[in-house]
Amino acid sequence: LKPFLLRLKSKEHIPAFSFQPGRMPIKLTYFNIAGAAEKVRLALAMTGTEFEDVRITFDDWQKLKPSTPYGQLPLLEIDGKVMAQSPAMLRWAGRLGDKSLYPEDTAKMVEIEEMTALSDDIAKAWTPCLYIGMRPAMMGHEFADDDAKNKKVKEMREKFMAEAFPQSMGYLTKILQSKGEKFICGDQVTIADLQFYPQLDYFRKGFADFVPKESLDSFPVVTAWLDRIAAIPQIKAWYAKKA
């Protein structure tokens, strides 16, 4: 951690990058969870881009945080330059290789952006339900005890799963059906797929309290798409390596 801190302090934050294959050591720093970094990890894996997958502890984060551009993780370090904000990293990574993850064609780019925005909408709806359990004060709540907190967490998460989640999965189902039930934006995987995949896999794995892992079973078109993504050789190899 210390060498990384020293580099952050000594190097200017420059958001513009040019990629020269084989000459640029790439380091992605985040916690040992999927979170905001997983879509970027998957994009790098899909393009066959070698990178150092640095996973820090929450104690280490307290030391690193004051030196980061925006007080957030993940950070992507390329040839000594630091990039922040995972959406920017995802789009940068999507232009590696043959650029098929994030094509330069304007019409396709707009389609991809529309789908990543839908994913962002789901994240915005879920965030209060997540943080009410982790940081209730940030959400304007104080609880007398854990029972009171759990009751509110359960109420909010069940409401999300009854309203916002099925509505969004209905949208995604129609989108996939319109694309021949292959990938979100057509015959090829794009960054839209890589953003949605860890987001929905989180629910399917039952990581969140009061959210049954069977919640996606009512949307077979979506679960079939999740299975197709998981079966992609680069994705399968990535998770096999991390198992």
Would you write up a description of this structure?
The protein is an alpha+beta fold and 243 residues long. It is built from ten helices and four strands. The chain has a four-stranded mixed beta sheet. Strand 3 and strand 4 form a beta hairpin. Helix 5 packs antiparallel against helix 6 and helix 5 packs parallel to helix 8. It is globular and about 55 Å long. About 5% of the residues have low confidence.
Topology, please?
Layout: H1 2-10, E1 26-31, H2 38-46, E2 52-56, H3 58-64, E3 75-78, E4 81-84, H4 86-94, H5 106-134, H6 146-162, H7 164-178, H8 191-204, H9 220-231, H10 233-242
Parallel strand pairs: 1-2
Antiparallel strand pairs: 1-3, 3-4
Which tags fit this structure?
single chain, 243 residues, four-stranded mixed sheet, 4 strands, 8% strand
- Over all CA atoms, what is the radius of gyration? 19 Å
Q: What general outline do the C-alpha atoms trace? A: globular
Order of helices and strands: HEHEHEEHHHHHHH
Number of helices: 10
Q: Report the portion of residues in β strands.
A: 5-15%
Largest sheet: 4 strands, mixed
Please tally the β strands and state the result: 4
- Which range best describes the helical content: under 10%, 10-25%, 25-40%, 40-55%, 55-70% or over 70%? 40-55%
Low-pLDDT segments, ≥5 res: 9-19
* Distance separating the two termini: 24 Å
